[in-house]
Amino acid sequence: RAYYCEPQLSSDANRHVDGINLDWDTCNPQPLKILCLNTIANNWLTIPFFREIPLGEDRHFLLDLLDLSFPLENLCARIRSDAFWRRAFVNRWKTYYPIDVDEKPWIRVYLEKHISEMLENLKPADYEQEIVQKLVDLCSLHVRELRIDHLEPPTNENGDHIPFDLILSNLRELRKVNITYDVKNAGNNFYLGCATITDKDIKLMTQGLERCYELTEFRLHSTKLEPAMMKRLAT
Predict the structure, then answer these.
(1) What is the DSSP string of 86-124?
(2) How far does the chain reach from its first CA to its final CA, in angstroms?
């Protein structure tokens, strides 16, 4: 099997190392194993080999070669390596470092940040149930904490934000929820009351919370609630 070939220098007795000419060894081809791993990495979407590679050191080598721009669906289905997901996280969020990472696998850290960012930047007018369902399905096995620090301001007449019923009810492993119905960057869409939570927002959110069977902590931040809303949350 070509894969198991190890790199070896030629045993030619006349071969000499040239300490001055740094290109003395550039004519030697790479080991066949390395060529195979490069080929797998370059064509990984069509031949997504990872667990099929027997040696751990070669798996790590392949992870360093994989393109971080590959679709998340493919990466999540095949890769669990903390080293890979840490590299992916640092590459995407260069100025942000999460807390309590020692207690979490990096794929969970990545997907919790991913879904939070996607929802925070989703405008109510652009909400499509099918697209959001795919996002939730991608993250549901790994996300245990959902933290929403702000939401896009609603542009509809009713002032409703993106609905959270489908999102919360389909995150099966959810333990903690932190939501803020506040606005950070309203821009030209600013108007008085754009950060106000509506009755429909509360209704849909509570419907989703009712199906979070593993939930242990829920926090609603910086949000003004009417008495009827508080009653709905309490029940």
Answers:
(1) HHHHHHH-TT---SSGGGS-HHHHHHHHHHHHHHHT--G
(2) 65
Over residues 1-29, the pLDDT tens digits come to 444 444 454 555 565 655 566 666 666 77
Say what the pTM is. 0.82
Structure tokens belonging to residue 151: 């939401």
Which residue blocks in the chain are alpha helix, DSSP H?
32-42, 56-65, 72-78, 82-92, 106-120, 129-139, 165-170, 199-209, 227-234
| Contacts of residue 156, Cβ cutoff 8 Å, sequence gap at least 6 | 124, 125
Is 37 within 8 Å of 13 (Cβ atoms)? no
Sequence-separated contacts (24+) of 168-171 with Cβ below 8 Å: 168/205, 168/208, 168/209, 168/211, 168/212, 169/207, 169/208, 169/210, 169/211, 169/212, 170/133, 170/136, 170/137, 170/140, 171/136, 171/139, 171/140, 171/143, 171/146, 171/212
Per-residue pLDDT tens over the stretch 153-204: 887 778 889 999 999 999 999 999 999 987 776 566 666 666 688 889 999 9
**Cα gap 95→118, rounded to integer Å:** 18
Q: pLDDT, tens digit, for every residue of 93-152?
A: 998 888 777 788 999 999 999 999 999 999 998 999 999 999 999 999 999 999 999 898
CB 112 within 8 A of CB 143: yes
- Residue 108: name the closest of 176, 182, 167, 59 by CA: 176
The Cα 212–Cα 169 span in angstroms is: 6
